[in-house]
Please model this.
Amino acid sequence: MATPSPETEDGERRRHHRVREIFAEAHALIAPFFAPENRWANVTLDHLAYRVLRDHYPELNFEEVHVLVVATRRVCTDLDTPGQAG
Model:
């Protein structure tokens, strides 16, 4: 079982606040790499998503870029899965 994240002084457990600020814009940039019609041999183009984000947001570290890619992949997968509540 995962250990819960420690809270900060103000009670906030979330991290990556900059990622949260730019998520909508970053999602729009990289969502096409996860579209079913853009897959190559039925594999998503994650590596291109990483490159685009690094080019557009050079101030982000690898972990922040990874969080954006994983979150976008999850949103796109949930949208493509029939029967998903959303």
Notes: The mean pLDDT is 82.
